[in-house]
Amino acid sequence: MGGGVSHIDSFDPKPQAPQEIRGTLSAISTALAGVQFTEVMPQLARIADELCLVRSFSHDSNDHLLSQVYTLSGRKVTAAQLFSEPNIG
Question: Is 9 exposed, middle or buried (0-12, 13-18, 19+ CB in 10 A)?
Answer without folding.
Answer: middle
